[in-house]
Amino acid sequence: xxxxxxxxxxxxxxxxQSMNFAQSAAKExxxxxxxxxAPVRAVELDGGAALKIIKHCTDAAPGLATGxxxxxxxxxxxxxxxxxxxxxxxxxxxxEFAYDADGAFAAEDGAQYQLDMxxxxxxxxxxxxxxxxxxxxxxxxxxxxxxxxxxxxYAESIKRCVCVAYDPTYAEQGVCALRALKLxxxxxxxxxxxxxxSIKKIHERGLKWSDIVVEVPITIRNSALASAVMGELAxxxxxxxxxxxxDRLSLSTAPxxxxxxxxxxxxxxxxxxxxxxxxxxxxxxxxxxxxxxHWLQKRRQENARRRANGEDELPEEDDNYKAPTxxxxxxxxxxxxxxxxxxxxLDAFTTKTMAKLELVTAISGSK
Amino acid sequence: MASKFWGGSDSSxxxxxxxxxxxSSSISSxxxxxxxxxxxxxxxxxxxxxxxxxxDERRVIRSFKEKQHETLRKTAREMDSALVTCDWVSLSGLxxxxxxxxxxxxxxxxxxxxxxxxxxxxxxxxxAEVNARSQxxxxxxxxxxxxxxxxxxxxxxxxxxxxxxxxSDITAAEKRLESHEDSDxxxxxQSIQADGKSTTATExxxxxxxxxxxxxxxxxxxxxxxxxxxxxxxxxxxKGIDRMQTVDQLTYxxxxxxxxxxxxxxxxxxxxxxxxxxxxxxxxxxIPMWRSxxxxxxxxxxxxxxxxxxxxTNEQESSQRPSNDDIMAGAKIQLCGSLSAFAERLDDxxxxxxxxxxxxxxxxxxxxxxxxxxxxxxxxxxxxxxSKTRKLHVASLSTRTLEHIYYKRSTTYESLREFVxxxxxxxxxxxxxxxxxxxxxxxxxxxxxxxxxxxxxxFPHGNLFSRIExxxxxxxxxxxxxxxxRALLCQIFSKALHGQYERAKELLLMSHLQESIMHMDxxxxxxxxxxxxxxxxxxxxxxxxxxxxxxxxxxxxxxRTKELLAQGYAQGRFTERSAEHEKLExxxxxxxxxxxxxxxxxxxxxxxxxxxxxxxxxxxxxxRALTRTFLRIIENYSRQLFTGPPDSIxxxxxxxxxxxxxxxxxxxxxxxxxxxxxxxxxRPKAEVLHLVDKRLxxxxxxxxxxxFADQYTSANGDxxxxxxxxxxxxxxxxxNSMVANERVSAIFDEPxxxxxxxxxxxxxxxxxxxxxxxxxxxLLDASERALDSHVGTExxxxxxxDEAFSRRKTTKNQSEPDEYRxxxxxxxxxxxxxxxxxxxxxxxxxxxxxxxxxxxxxxxPTKDKDITRxxxxxxxxxxx
Lengths: 367, 880
Hints:
heterodimer, A: alpha/beta, Cytidine Deaminase, domain 2, 2 domains, eight-stranded mixed sheet, 8 strands, B: mainly alpha, three-stranded antiparallel sheet, two-stranded parallel sheet, 5 strands, elongated, disordered N terminus, disordered C terminus
C-alpha cells in the first residue's frame, strides 16, 4: 500500500538495497562513526557536492536517483563534502541484470561498486566517510516506510546520518529544493526498540505524527576559492536576470496543483485503506473478546468445580485463542506526514501564484 | 417327441432332462405351453426351463413349508398337553418357541391364513385356560416359586398377544373352540365368558352392534345407545380399529339417538372420529369426509341452539353428569367439545388440502368451491359465540374468516356467494321434491348428501368490504395482538387490492406495524410480505412509482422472493435445511389461488426501479439502498459479452434501460408497453400503461438531456418533443426544472423554444479536485462510523444473523417512502454533500454532521465544491 513514486520508471537501487554497502563502508570507518552520538543540528553541504546532487537528480528526472553522501562528522554540524551517485540498476552493464527478480545480484553489484568507489575516492584524498544518502523525490512523496527502514539500517552503523532530498519539480519554480532530513530521537526510541508501533507506545511517549522526521537546516558552504570564482563571474553582471529568475515568473499553475491534488487523493485512499484495516481489527477484536470472555467464564466455572473437588486448577490463559494483532500505526503517521507535506507545498505554491496572478492582472490592466 | 411330453408324468423328470440336453429348446417351448394342462404343468415347465436341480429345490421348499406347519402344529399340541398337566414352565417355553416359529412362518409368507388361525386359536385357548386357573382361589399357593413366576409371565404374554390380534380372528377362534371342544369341560367354556376384559368387551360389542344395528329404531333404548357409544369411544385410538367403520357406526347411532343431548354427544363423537381419520399433519382429510364433518358441526350447532340446556365446555368432565333419565327429561348437561376448535380444525384441513392438491387439477377448483361452506360455517359459529359473548373465540374466528376473504376481489366474493346460493337453491328444490324435512336428515343420509350443498344456511350478507370492515372492527375491539395485526394487514391488503391506495398506505403508516413485524410469528410476517407486495402493485398501478419500488425492494433484495411470500421454496444453495425445517416451510405455503403473481411483481419492481434510478445511473454512482438490486442486475447485464433478444422480464427491462440511456425512447416504450405481463394487472391495462408511459417519457427526456447535452450547443424544443412524444407544456416544465436544478447547464429560450446549452468542461484540475473531495467524503464516512462504534452509538459488527426472514430488519427504514422522501429532499443533507445512512440512528447523524460538516467544508476548495455539489444535489433530488 505504499505509494512508490514512478517505481516502474526508476531503476535506481533503492536506499534499502544500498544498506549493505553502507554497512560495509561503515565497518571501515567504525572508529570515527562511533564517537559522536549527539544529534545532528545542522548540515553543511559543500557547494560542489550540492551541484553534483542537483545534476544527478535533474538528469534522472522524471526517474528517481540516489547516491551516497560522504563527509566529516564534526561537532554539531554534519559536514558533507562529497557525494557519488549509485548506478541505476538497469544501466549496469547488461540489460538482463535489470530483470533480476529479487535484485540480489544488482545489490551485490551495487555494493561492489560502492566499495570500489570509496576506495578510489580515498585514493584521491576525498573524505570517504559515509554520512548518509541523497535521493530525488517527486513532489515530496518520500514519506514511506522505505525511508524509515533505510534510516534505521543506516543508523545501525552510523549514529548521525541524514538524507538529503532533492525535488527537481520544485527547482523548476526557481527554488533551491534541497532538504536534509533525519529521524527524530523520540521516534527512534519508540520504533527502534522492537520495530512495532502500537497505539499504546505512541500514547506513552506522546508521539505526534509530525515528530517522525525532522528537517535539519542545510547550509551550502563554498571554499574560498570557489567564492572568489563566483564573485569574479558575477562581477559587473549583477543586474542581469538569469534563467532561474525567469522560472519564477512562470504562470503555468495548473499542472503542479493538479498533480498535488492527485497525490492528495491517493493519500486519502491510503487513509481509507488504513481505516479499513483498523475497522477490521476492531471487529476481530470484538469477536475475540466476546469469545474469550465466554471461554474464560467457562474456565472459571470449571475451576470452581475443581476447587470444590480438590483438584488442580486449570490455567486461565488460553493458548488456542490469540488476540488479533493491531495494525501498525506507522503507515498512518507517514501518510499524515505526506499529506502535510503536500498541503504545505500547495500552500506555498498558491500564495506565490496568487501574488503572480495579481501582478499579471495589474500589469495587463495598466496596459 | 411332443407326444412323449403330452403323456409326460411326474416321474418323467429324468427323461425330460434327457430330452432337454439333446434337443434344442426352440421347438420345444411351444410344445411346453400346450402341454401345461396337467396340474403339475406350470411348475414343471418353469423348472424345465431353468435346470435339472431346481426340481430338488422345489421339493425342499414344499417340504420346508409343510415342516414348518407341522412343527407349529406339534408345538401347539405340546402346549395343549402342557396346559392339561399345568406345567407352566414348559408351557411358557413352548409359547416362546411357538411364537418364534410363527414369526418365521410369517416371514416365508405362505399359508398365512392357516398359520394365523392356528396361532390365534392356540393363544386364545391357552389364555382361557390360564385365566380360568388364575380365578381359582388357592391355585397360586400350590405352585412352586418357579412355576408361579412362569405362570405370571405367561398371563402377561398371552394378554399381549391377544391385544395384537383382530377381534374377528379372536371371536372366530373362540367360536371354533366352542364348537370344537363342546366335549370339553364346561369350565373352559365358562372361563371364556369370564375372560379378560378385551375379549368380553369385543364380544359384547359385537353383539350390541349387531343388536342396535339390526334392531328396529323404536326398540332401541337410551341406555343401549349410551353404552354403545361408550364402547366405541373406548376403542378410539386403539390399534387395529377401522376408523372409517367407527365413523359409519356412529353415524348410524346418531339416527337412533333418543334425545337432543344424546344426539349432541353422538355427533361430537362423530366429529372427533372424523378428525381421527384424517390422521397426520402431512395428509389431509378426504373431501367427502370434510364435507360431512362440516355438516355435522353445523347440525351440532343447530342442536345446541335449539336446546339451551346443552352446553359445551373445554374442560374434561367439569360437572357431574346427570342420570340418564334426567338427560332424557332435558336436564342441564355439559358436553366436552368446542365449536371454535372444530371450525378451526376444519379450516386447517381445508388449507392443508389446498396445499396438497395439484393446483392445476379440476379437483382443486372443486375444492375451492367448498370455501363457501367453510365461510358459512364460520359465520354460524361466530354468531353462536357472539350470542354467548365469548369474545376471544369470536375474535380468533373472525381472524380466520378474514383470512379467507381478504385476498378476494369483490367480484370473486360475489360470484362465490352466487355459487353458494345457486347450489343451495338447487339442493333445496331437490329436497322439496322429496318428502323429507331437509334439515333434519342432512346428517343421516350422508352418502348422497355429501355431494349436495348446505341447505338452510345463507351466505354471509353484505358485500366484501362491509364484511371485512365488520370483522376487523370486531377484532380491533376484542382480539389479541396477533389477531389485530393480522386483521390490519388483511384490511390493508384488501384495500390495496381494490385500488384504494391512499387509504391502504395510511393504514399501514398509522399502524407502525413495520417496526414490530420482526417480532411477530412467521406466518404473520408472510402476511406482511404479501401485503407489502400488494401495496407495491397498487402503488404502481396508480403511478406512485417510487413508493412501489420502496415497497417491493425488500421482497426482491434478498433473492428469496418466493420464500418470503410463501409461494414456493427458496433454492437452498447455501443453506442446508433439515427435513423438519422443510416440513414446517411446506406447511406455511400459501394455497395456489392466493398467490400473488411473482412475475408481475418483478416486472413492477424492475420498472419502478428503472424509472426511479435511470436518471441517476449516469452521474451518480452511489446508489440508494432501495434499488441496489436493480443496479446489480444492470451491472451484471452490462458485463455480459453477448446479449440476445430479451426473453425474460428482467432482460426486457435491462434492454429498455439501455435504450433509454441511448435516447431511443420510442423503441423502449414499445418494448415496455408490449410486455405480456401487464395483462395480469387488475386495473385496466391502458390506464396503468398510460401512467407508466408518461413517466417513461419524462425520464427519457431527462436522461437524454443530461447525457447528451454536452454534445450540442443548442437544442430545438420541437425536435425533442417529437423525439419523446411529450407535450409542449410538459417539455417546458421538465426542461425548466432541470435547468433550475443544474442538471443541465443551459438556458431555456422561451420564444424560440430552444435550449441553449452552455458547455462547461471540467479542467483536469477540477476533476482531480472532485475526485479528491469524494475520497475525503469516503474517508469521513468511514471515520465517522469508526467513531460511532468507539463511542457506542452504533456497533459496527452488528450484521444480520442468519435467521430466516432477517431481511425484514431493514423494513423499518425502507417501507416508509414518505419519510424517506422527506429525508432526501431535506436541504441540509444535500447541501452538505453528505450521504445519510438510512440505518443510522437520528442522534448519531446529528452529531456526525456537527463535528464533521465543518471539516468537510473547510477542506474542499470552494470553487470545486460547487461543481460537486451541483452534480449531487440535482441527482438526488426528488422528481417534481
